[in-house]
From TrEMBL:
Pfam families referenced in this protein's UniProt entry, alphabetically: Esterase
GO molecular function: hydrolase activity
Protein name in UniProt: Alpha/beta hydrolase
Keywords: Hydrolase
Record InterPro entries: AB_hydrolase_fold (IPR029058), Esterase-like (IPR000801), Mycobacterial_A85_antigen (IPR050583)
Length: 259
């Protein structure tokens, strides 16, 4: 189902390092050569595809899920671009506390996205450009959604590590962006665990952030919250709920049709 092209030496000038990029094109990409496609960028690219060269253990199976939904007519076909994380993932995905999130942003905005838009038949406007990640990947997704709303119109923050940096993400989202938005927040009801002796409870902080965004005036069409009963902080949980997540986040807007 579809095709995955892996680039193992995509150079990031801001970070001065080679990155691995995994690009999934759906079946429709080859079947409809005159059509342009929306693009979903996902962090932790090594964990997102059902593919022999993905992570050894469980993955999101984002490619097979998207193809099933597109074949059923639930959503339209999307290109998915997976960005493998670097060795120090905490720094890479952190926008503050000495993190390098600004360099990750510069790479994505000024180098990777222009390459994807030049190389593939994409729809490059914000309504057709989505960003999704989990945990630290969810944190950097929400940061980028606020910083670059004119580029990323759809943001999926799954189990976001909002506790990193105290209340900084709450303060950062101080107003509506003024751009078209579709923001999804997800958390599993059993996402409580100890991380190197630090107790992390994702449920209340994700609920609080949803309340924060609602207080800024985001409507139900713009903001969606999923509390997944009995789900944990793991790829198997995100994989299980991905059909629901993609169905809402990637739904076509009234301003454009499927084809």
């Amino acid at each position: 189902m579809g095709y995955i092209h892996i680039i193992r030496d995509f150079y990031s000038f801001p970070e001065q390092v080679n990155r691995t990029i995994r690009i999934f094109t759906p079946d429709a990409y080859d079947q409809q050569p005159d059509k342009r496609f929306p693009v979903l960028y996902m962090f932790d690219g090594q964990n997102i595809f059902a593919h022999p060269e993905s992570a050894v253990w469980d993955t999101w199976c984002a490619n097979t899920t998207l193809e099933r939904l597109a074949s059923a007519g639930t959503i339209e076909p999307w290109i998915i671009v997976g960005i493998d994380h670097l060795p120090n993932r905490m720094e890479e995905y952190s926008p503050w506390m000495g993190g390098r999130g600004n360099l990750t942003a510069e790479f994505l905005i000024n180098h990777l996205k222009p390459f994807i838009d030049k190389t593939y038949r994409t729809l490059s406007d914000s309504q057709n450009t989505a960003l999704m990640g989990s945990s630290m990947g969810g944190l950097i997704s929400l940061y980028l959604g606020k910083t670059y709303p004119q580029i990323f119109g759809r943001i999926g923050g799954l189990s976001p590590a909002l506790m990193l940096g105290g209340t900084q993400m709450f303060s950062y989202w101080d107003r509506r962006t003024g751009f078209w938005s579709r923001i999804l927040l997800y958390v599993g009801s059993k996402e409580q665990y100890s991380f190197y002796g630090i107790w992390l409870d994702y449920v209340p902080i994700t609920k609080d952030f949803y309340t924060r965004l609602k207080s800024l005036g985001y409507s139900e069409d713009e903001l969606h919250f999923i509390l997944a009963e009995d789900e944990i902080h793991h790829e198997t949980s995100w994989q299980k709920r991905l059909p629901e997540i993609m169905t809402w986040l990637l739904a076509p807007t009234a301003s454009r049709s499927f084809f």
